[in-house]
Amino acid sequence: MRWKLLAFAIGNRRFANMSSKLGTWQNDDEVIRRVLKESKTIALVGASKNTARASNHVMSAMQQMGYKVIPINPGLAKQNEILHGEKVYPDLQSVAAE
Fold first, then answer.
1. Alpha carbons 46 and 66: distance in angstroms, whole number
2. pTM, whole model, 2 decimals?
């Protein structure tokens, strides 16, 4: 299986400009639209089973819109959790390995 890595943040202004080991990037609405239109499987890094957290609602909403959402959370993965019907993975590399 061939994987592309694309990092972007949606929402909160504090993520508008991000810097990391991957470099610096800025959200681009057109890129986000294209990714959501062309991709049907999305990894959600920071997925939570806590219903008070936004990531829990984002995962549920994206599934309702027809996306396959792969939850990424090392703590939940250690507990062999299932979140919204999907196996939780500890990291992106583990998803690519399967």
1. 20
2. 0.72
